[in-house]
Amino acid sequence: MKIALLGFGTVGRGVDQIISERVPDVEVARILELPDRLTDPRMTSSYDDIVADPEIGLVVECMGGVEPARTYIMAALEAGKHVVTSNKAVVAAHFAEFAAASAASGAGLYIEASVGGGIPWIASVEKVRRIDEVTSFSGIMNGTTNYIVDAMRREGADFFEVLAEAQRLGYAERDPSADIDGIDVANKTIISASVAFDVACEKDLPVTGIRNLRKSDLDLLAGCGRTAKLLGRGVCRDGRYAAAVEPVAVSLDSLEASVPSNFNLVTLDATTVGELRFYGQGAGSLPTGNAIVQDVLDCVRGVRRPAYDFSRGLAWDPELLRSDHVFRTEATIPGSEPFAPGAVVARDVTAAEARALLDAALEVDPTTFMAALA
Ligand code: HSE
Questions:
Q1: Atom of ligand 1 at shortest distance to CA of 86?
Q2: Residues 53, 30 contacting (CB under 8 angstroms)
């Protein structure tokens, strides 16, 4: 089959390399690029050249961002062309719209690479859902922030120095604030909750990143047998669900604490299969390219055709995600008690309440760091 790539950055180049070296039955025939970057005879800067080409049966969108990615994906689906995308921002924002367009035209919608890089997470959740209810998921879903925390812990490196290295390695988003402020994980959590719980997930979930994490915070947590990891989490029970993104002070004995470099670890709990854990590289050209090519092959070889149905009618209930939260701050946290020198703990608050406490503390002390206690 002839396919087109929309975007030729870190991910697009990985897809092109894997297909040209390892997948003889698929040809990258066209590549959409900016007018000043047309360095390959397959490249065009006109999307019409691609969407109107009857020989192109599948479009791989790896441009990133919401527009024009949304417009291009909708045009491809409406034209009956299958879509494979790694773009978590556009899927999180328009998942239900894409699913409806896919169902209407019969064109496939494949989103594996949007969460967890090279890990076959989405396809596995879909498989689990054929039999089970997913009752919760939780995971390290951002390679950049895991890389940062890991390097800070192991090398005692400075936050922004390590971030620059993650950017150089092609892990970070074009605007790395999406990584360090938890927005990238929020998009992946929305997508994961949508697939795991069969719901068009609430987009206004509590989100806190690791921008204010300092080496001294890791030292403080280490003194309590813990370290910090940025986790996306979702819970579903009794017709209700909740999701949140926040740093979590996990036990040093946990698998999460041991996850190195740009690796991700995502865990789910489901009715009959119980706990499943998925581990692999969560960012980078070839791992993410691999997830895209797996979707391309599932489509081209007729192995798998996802069908997303968000009509289950679950209610959003932030009360489902409650835990103690530690704050390192000079501000006063109402109702808190001492935790360690320089830190206090607010007991049994929801992720949304903790985010509100953090917002108030940041007004007084802009360096405040917060983490949930696992
Ligand atoms: N910036 C993302 C990450 C890329 O670091 O995980 C993969 O989604």
A1: 8
A2: yes
Q: Is the pLDDT of residue 362 over 90?
A: yes
Mutate to test the pocket of ligand 1, among 173, 175, 192, 261 (most ligand atoms within 8 A of CB): 173
Domains (range + CATH), the chain: 2-110 (3.40.50.720), 128-281+313-373 (3.30.360.10)
Place of tokens 């990238």: 184
CA pair distance 90, 93, nearest whole angstrom: 5
Burial of 215 (0-12, 13-18, 19+ CB in 10 A): middle
What DSSP character marks residue 198? T
Residue nearest to atom 1 of ligand 1 (CA): 172
Whether the predicted model's global pTM rises above the 0.85 cut: yes
Token pair for residue 19?
């297909």
For tokens 């080409």, what's the residue?
53
CA of 40 to the centre of ligand 1 (A): 27
Residue 169 pairs in a beta bridge with none
Residues 6+ apart with CB under 8 A from 163: 144, 148, 172, 176, 179, 180
Rounded Cα gap, residues 45 and 335, in angstroms: 57
Q: Which segments within the chain are labelled E, that is strand?
A: 2-6, 27-32, 43-44, 56-61, 82-85, 109-110, 134-140, 226-237, 240-251, 263-270, 274-281, 315-316, 322-328, 337-340, 343-350, 369-373
Is-catalytic flag, 188?
Answer: yes
pLDDT in tens, 266-313: 999 999 999 999 999 999 999 999 999 999 999 999 999 999 989 888
